[in-house]
DNA sequence: GAGCTTTATAAGGTATCCTGATAATTCGGA
DNA sequence: TCCGAATTATCAGGATACCTTATAAAGCTC
């Protein structure tokens, strides 16, 4: 009863998550743009987030890691290929498959992106407190653990 | 240096936020559907999240609270109106404006939605620990505070 | 009352996902 | 060894959730 009353005027969790994500993403893509990668958009994350930066990955792998359909990831892949971030090469071990690999430009974007994400997280820690951001991380990892575990290496 | 090494293999914050939001939203809309509101979609949140359930609100208010354009919120409003959740009535105090009000069906969806969100948050607390979810809430509120503060009552 | 602002809407476009269908290749068992 | 089933990628079309630009009507200020 008192719990309901307490919660009544606090913003719902789904809204907080939404705003926090939006905030982080906004800052990230602003900096990506400033770093010369203005054509990288959130939707490209399903590739950059799952690709093996050294050996490349197959479309099926990327789709599975991103929890998306192969068609969707394929579309994003074509877009990034068109923009010069990726290349598709035939898989020598499987005639059906292709290996999606970062070009040198793609590798650059990948590296810069990772660094910007780390930067942002560090800045959040400085701004809001190390402990608070560590707690945020821990909580998010706990809440998403079963999803992350279900993913392949 | 060691910090970079520690972070290296942990999932990036933006991904964690993405998955957590997706997880919460998925469960919420699943239950909304089970409760008979299967036609309520995430995009409708900009109205339900900002509307005054008693007296209704103007489009401009809803757009400002949702940080969206009036056109976008207007589109969502028309959709919800078509589905019987809302009605638009002329504002007696301003000939330009219309008041967007919940119908009885809309009020039902609103109430059920709020309860389901509270339910979910309570279940998360039971599953992952009261303290962890409280910490998650606190951290998210801290990180989003400046955005929430910028909003009107 | 003229000019600016505010309210809502119309029209059209972009981004990010989806489902269903298709073609090529590989694999596994009779 | 060959045939059917599974796997890989892709094509085509659609749904959703936003956006920008332009318009119309009403209010506000001087």
Could you give the topology of this structure?
2 copies of one chain form a homodimer.
Chain A: H1 2-8, H2 13-34, H3 45-48, E1 57-58, H4 59-66, H5 70-82, E2 86-90, E3 98-102, H6 104-128, H7 130-149
Antiparallel strand pairs in A: 1-3, 2-3
Helix pairs in contact in A: 2-6, 4-5, 6-7
Chain A binds a DNA duplex (30 and 30 nucleotides) through helix 5.
Most extensive chain-chain interface: A-B, 44 and 44 residues
Helix content of chain A: 55-70%
Spatially, the strands of the biggest sheet of chain A line up as 1-3-2
Distance between the termini of chain A: 45 Å
| Number of helices, counting only DSSP H or I runs of 4 residues or more of chain A | 7
What is the typical, i.e. mean, pLDDT of chain A? 93
The helix-and-strand class of chain A reads mainly alpha
Overall number of strands of chain A? 3
